[in-house]
Design goal:
The chain is an all-alpha fold. It contains 20 helices and no strands.
Length: 422
Amino acid sequence: MTGISTTRIAFASFIGTAIEFYDFYIYGLAVAMVIGPVFFPADDPAVQALNAFLTFGLAFVARPFGALLFGHFGDRLGRKTTLAASLLVMGISTTLIGVLPGFDAAGWVAPLLLCLLRFAQGIGLGGEWGGAALLASEYAPEGRRGWFGMFPQLGPPVGFLLATGSFLLLSFALTEDQFRAWGWRLPFLASALLVAVGLYVRLKLAETPVFARALAAHQPARLPLVQLFAHHLKPLVQGALSMVVCYALFYISTVFALSYGVSTLNIPRAQFLTMLCVAVVFMAAATPLAAIASDRYGRRPVLLVASSAALLSGFLMAPMLGSGNTLTITAFLSLELFLMGATFAPMGALLPELFPTSVRYTGAGAAYNLGGILGASLAPYAAQQLVAMGGLPWVGYYITGMAAISLLAVLTMRETRDEELA
């Protein structure tokens, strides 16, 4: 593989996840700021917030279905076309959310359409990550799958910075009334331009050599899902549970923390978004460090250390996030997102390594997105309920519990660093 092709593969696996996660994150940030008031009745602000968080979770329910749908075609037809299709589904759904009428204009039709498009977002993202991870890992040179698998993992922090930066810019440029009336729609509409760039890059790719060899050697699995559940159920469950801590760390530290910081701690939205921009840099920094370590020491040691640290970090939530001090809160958010990056980075290599080529797209994508249901779909909603019933310490215990689940899952896994993709 030439230097040019190496760069192209790294960029192609990165750009798609960056765009798709930008789309996903702008919705998460909008949930914390505007989705409830725009799309639900104004009778009770607390009910508005809970309904908005439920629409947030809906996409996580859809993501495994997207993983299985795109995984089926990815394992039968190839990675290239499937990756382009998943990006298109996500981009169209996101752009259409930007033009939806609100509750005042369309009544209950508005939240119904929102839920349908949010479900479609989940379908698209469900097919994206598995394909991007396979693109990187199946092209990776020997001994460098962790490093190459890092590039799709860099997409989320960059996508988050783009999403947060866009809302931050709007916070400075528009009044609150302008933002609520139409300004929040602009990041959704901008997705169409980003998707066009991503599609151009993806359609220039060739099929991965690992899949091409497998296709030449034997017929693809007729029903990859059946083969996955019949022969690879254990790694599917292990992979899904190992992902739980990544999601819990991220969405508690971003969606819930933003809502709590603005509504309960009365920190101005623009200031809290700036704090999140600082914190997500630590997530981006942890990603290559953990990827390099996973190639050198193995996937399991890195995940065991990072998950153990995440388990302990839950006890810091109440004293740090609840302090009201912006420096202390920023330090806590930076710690949590650093640990998210450390637990997330090895997954770009680990999950594909758990499955053979015939079911790799289906298996890696399903494990990744099933972990999303367990770790993230209800995380902001559960945190909102926990803080209402028992206070902020219980949200920290939630993080500790999710980390314990992932820690136990990794303990039961085999080490995959030195296994050949076949």
